[in-house]
Write a structure and sequence with these properties.
The protein is built from 12 helices and 24 strands. The chain has about 475 residues and is of the alpha/beta class. The protein starts with a strand and ends with a helix.
């Protein structure tokens, strides 16, 4: 029995990756298939544990059919188990030809090599940093509507820390994000679920729910800190940031809905966000039908829309960079399950049923689609720290790349890859369960969104050639 794990090879190009050769020494499992165009394949690998394991080695050589491009997959154990991509005949947007890209290795889990090609022939991968990925993609995305662009998204984005709220709330059942708002932006997230609440007279991000007649939950980052972090990001990067305000509460007064005056105070507070996207008299304009170039051709844009309760209005804030759900209609239906298989089947079936992006208007289903790749704690999980929200999220990070991508098509793909614990694939909550441990982060979800834009939306003529 060796030491096993997997490598997911995601081919987001129109060309098959054809194996031209493979070789291994002391590897218990080393067998590589052709990777079909537009598909992801998880390959199981097992290092040997006999003899001098430092000599364990494997090579797999891939040619990209119809092109001069090629790369290698290398396995080595200089000090620890490691997989490397060698770009001997390929350069990407972030890695020159000849680069060695260290993917690491995860026992009984996966690492990913995500490689896609845009309409201009540029290669994108999950190597290097792609903080301004929207600006770098303007050649292919500038004239696409937001309905036809995929992006990472953060569920309960303000809950990157835990501050006590009600009895029974703790970080394991309340904190949803490992990274703060700024780091989520740096890791590629562009759609943010922000839930402002009043707590001790201050605006903070909250995560509360009503169970029977009892409210449970706690607080995360302050809204003031979130505003500072947004402004720090847009000072340097001309990206589009979409913020959905919802689940607002006055926790100081029996968790009641906000009054009009409190909403006005919230909007006045959020006016400190720079680069708000502002148009006069927007009325009921649907901005999901606007193209990306309308927002960020030469500047950053922060688009803020609010899920307003009945009886609450924007008033003049509608002319100051604030919008309602009518201005940004979305399909958003989460699974409400703590079981990975149930959640996956639910989200993929909803995507198939709700998205059919075709030229024939009578057959078209084309609403901005939130793909909620989220596990929801159930009562039996609330006091089980090993079933922490962030742990549940880490447990479904791998199949988002290896399984969900294979269910996407050029006619049916999501707009928001919506997750908890964005950038994390290892459990951050482990014994002794006193606080989240430090874990490595990654930007695979950005490369995945780019691959969806290239391999799915980019192969749909209705999307790429106009309407």
């Amino acid at each position: 029995m060796g030491y096993g794990g997997s490598l997911t090879l995601l081919n987001g190009s129109p060309h098959d990756w054809v194996l031209s050769g493979q070789h291994s020494y002391q590897m218990d499992t080393w067998s590589w298939p052709t990777i079909n165009a537009g598909k992801a394949t998880k390959v199981y690998i097992e290092f040997g544990l006999k003899g001098h394991t430092g000599d364990d080695a494997g090579e797999a050589y891939y040619n990209i059919a119809g092109t001069p491009n090629k790369f290698q997959v290398l396995a080595r154990k200089p000090s620890d188990f490691k997989l490397t991509i060698h770009l001997d005949g390929l350069a990407t947007k972030t890695s020159p030809q000849g680069s060695n890209i260290d993917l690491g290795f995860r026992h009984d889990a996966a690492v990913n090599w995500i490689l896609s090609q845009d309409e201009a022939g540029n290669w994108w991968s999950n190597s290097g940093t792609q903080t301004d990925w929207m600006q770098q993609s303007m050649g292919s995305l500038a004239n696409r509507t937001l309905r036809h662009i995929a992006m990472p998204g953060s569920h309960d984005a303000g809950m990157s820390t835990f501050r006590p709220g009600t009895v029974g709330a703790h970080f394991a059942n309340t904190q949803t994000q490992y990274l703060d708002f700024y780091q989520q932006l740096m890791h590629g997230s562009r759609y943010f679920d922000l839930r402002p609440v009043i707590s001790n007279g201050q605006w903070v991000a909250g995560h509360y729910s009503e169970v029977g007649d009892i409210w449970l939950g706690g607080n995360g980052q302050s809204i003031a800190d979130i505003i500072t972090q947004i402004n720090d990001f847009t000072r340097n990067y001309k990206e589009l940031i979409i913020i959905n305000l919802s689940h607002t509460l006055d926790t100081d007064h029996d968790y009641r809905d906000l009054t009009q005056d409190q909403w006005n105070d919230l909007f006045n507070t959020l006016k400190s966000i720079n680069n708000r996207f502002t148009v006069p008299n927007p009325g009921r304009t649907d901005f999901t039908q606007s193209v990306l170039g309308d927002f960020i051709t030469d500047r950053a844009s922060v688009f803020i829309f609010a899920q307003l309760p009945r009886g609450i209005s924007l008033g003049d804030f509608a002319n100051q960079g604030f919008y309602t759900q009518d201005n940004f209609p979305v399909y958003d239906s989460y699974s409400n399950s703590n079981d990975a298989g149930t959640m996956q089947r639910d989200q993929l079936s909803k995507l198939k049923a709700e998205r059919n992006i075709v030229a024939d208007a009578s057959q078209r289903k084309d609403r901005f689609h939130i793909f909620s790749w989220i596990l929801t704690q159930q009562p039996e999980d609330v006091l089980n720290f090993d079933r922490a929200i962030m742990n549940l999220a880490a447990g479904v990070a791998d199949p988002l790349v290896s399984e969900a991508f294979n269910a996407f098509t050029p006619e049916s793909f999501p707009n928001v890859l919506y997750v908890d614990a964005i950038g994390v694939r290892d459990k951050p909550v482990v014994f002794p369960f006193d606080k989240p441990r430090s874990v490595a982060t990654n930007t695979d979800i950005v490369a995945l969104a780019i691959a969806v834009n290239n391999a799915m939306a980019g192969r749909n003529p209705y999307v790429t050639k106009g309407r």
